[in-house]
Records
---
Amino acid sequence: MDKKTMTLGEFIIENQDSFQYTSGELSRLLNGLRLAAKVVNHEVNKAGLVDIIGAAGDTNIQGENQQKLDVMANEKFIQTLSKREIVCGIASEEEDDFISINSFDKQHQNKYIVLIDPLDGSSNIDVNVSVGTIFSIYRRVTPVGTPVTLEDFLQPGRNQVAAGYIVYGTSTMLVYTTGDGVNGFTLNPALGTFYLSHPDMEFPETGKIYSVNEGNYVHFPKGVKDYIKYCQEEEGDRPYISRYIGSLVSDFHRNMIKGGIYLYPKSSKAEEGKLRLLYECNPMAFLAEQANGKASDGFNPIMDIIPKELHQRVPFFCGSKKMVEKAEEFMAAKS
Ligand code: AHM
Ligand code: MG
């Protein structure tokens, strides 16, 4: 079959045999995410038309204002995933605690855990800039037949069986991995169908883009400051180009296609960094490694971190392998 005409649904079925566990279940789970992505895409795209933008008046566990679309996206993903009798637990960046799913006729028989950031970069909604959804999928570690526990959610990123994101951009794309490379699908909005538009995505080994919120410069550790200065120096292929959307999904997506590095270091304002290990960094790290890139906390691979809490934050350096390695050199020299 011509890869370019392949739909996401066809791709999921065609590739399910390469998956090490009972493949049909993961396929149904991915199909659930595909459906929720279309629903959320529909709402995000009409955000400027109806009175659904703006703060919902609530704050999430991190004390940030929740936008109405965050709340809507959170609900849609949770609803869609909990109805499929595959997922036993969901944790969301927008929920204080994890949700245990117990389907009525299949008491605790489901095997999959989903962690989700339903609408990342939501401060960009009001100004019509791209936002995204990030998802991360694990097998439960506690016995089937018992309720899920925190232990099922606090697994290192290495245990992920699938991860991906949806970017609601100039076009809507779903990009995911099941540990066998990274593939990207673009939504044809007229038909409501995702087509394989970006097979076998890979970060270029090195690149010319650095993405960091330089407004925090004075608060960054010395290693990060030195690395930023290195990016700006006139030498060889430098200075690099600075590009920062402030939507992790979009910054990552661009850097994967063009070659670049994304940094959200710790700072004297945010001792642990800002991004969440479980909802943002681990899934992006899995995608990065599957796409020949690299993700670290500045010193060690993100996916080797043993999580201690659901909403844990971590410094994040991610992108083209050589660029991340260079940033790590600067960090090591100044630690
Ligand atoms: P969010 O989950 O509250 O949307 O925060 C995550 C976002 C990332 O998408 C983005 O890269 C970063 O926060 C931007 O933060 P800042 O505005 O501090 O640069
Ligand atoms: Mg987020």
---
Amino acid sequence: MEKIVINGGKKLQGEIFVHGAKNSVLPILAATLLIKGVSIIHNVPDLTDVDASVKILEYLGAKVKREGNTLIVDACEITENTIPEEMMREMRSSIIFLGSLLSRTKEAYICYPGGCDIGIRPIDLHLSSLRKLGAVITENGSCLCCKNANCHGAKIILTFPSVGATENIIIAAAVSKGKTTIINAAREPEISDLAAFLNSCGAKIFGAGEGTIEIEGVDGLYPCTHTIIPDRVVAATYMSAAALCADELIIKNIRSQHLSPVIPAFMEMGCKLYIDRNNLKVVSPKRLKRVRMIKTMPYPGFPTDCQSVIMAALTKASGTTVINESIFESRFKHISELNRFGADIAVNDRSAIINGVKNLYGANVYCTDLRGGASMVIAALAAEGKSTIGDIYHINRGYENIEDNFALIGADIKRISDEKAKENEKTEQQEA
Ligand code: UD1
């Protein structure tokens, strides 16, 4: 298993480029199953979660080819309707294949999905919504059998605006008979991107990005070419790194309106933000200021996915910040690792209390989850001395070449093999 080694304290400067959004690519790849043709998807980052989706598509019979950042998905022939458990468990997004398989093959056999360990993460809203559309779903332990003899439109009221459930409904309803209305739908930009993709294929989805979405089922879809939106969580990760480790940094390929939920927090920290079309310049103060209160909420609230990375920046701010995590019940696992750098963060139920410290110091830490892992990279970039980050397979799920991107803007960061890391540890112990 590889590790990331960082000699911290270097000033970052220059330009950094944001890749395509993981959370857009995954449902869109699942949706390509609806199209008996060749879908061309541009701006697809090279991530292990994308590989996991491609593996599922290929298992089901699709032919997938990567040309640089473009994926070409030929779903003319789909021969399978069962997804093996080990593929389902690789990521949470595998559950989105339920809606697309139901639509395409009228029958699906899957297991409960995996994904980051940040809470219980039930799929009750996915299942109850698909049942409303007419799917017959039986549960046997962790296995699900889903049949869709007679799918039809329905009015679905979500008790919580779940991103994944909204996506599953959109995908299943796009080619169902009649009209579906989703009340209290998730409003995340990735939902709008999925709808944009499907609408380019001939679907009739109205209101994506708003709380009510209407879908008029169509008989079939045709292939299209689509470009994935930039990843707003990666952008916020770079903003956090810029706030903490740069005087000035230009973040390229952003959508400013997608960052509007996080921009006020960075301004309260004392950063100056200059937006020029798809570029964002972050100018940081000598010392960041605390943010009075951050509460994670569904979009357009502060994203739960950005909670850990901004927390890393706030470890060195003057004063105390409180971050309340309202979406996932155990999304604070990164905190004990951040404290190894010398951060002073306490947890009280679903609130983290971050007392800003003057300095962080190099540490050996392990990624706890995808975004938690990114927060450790940021802390290590700011820390004095050497840090080693293990279990970086979490980071590989959502950040393409994180070490190369930071190295290009002046970080002393590299990826090393586990053997090399062990050798280094032994030498260090002997020298100590
Ligand atoms: C998606 C994102 C993830 C992000 C999350 C919230 C992808 C691939 N992942 O995850 O990065 O952190 O949105 O913005 O897009 N819930 C239920 N029952 C359900 C479904 C969800 O109780 O059937 C709960 C969850 O446990 C959680 C909350 O709803 O507490 C939010 O989950 P949801 O919006 O569904 O997140 P995901 O789609 O899993």
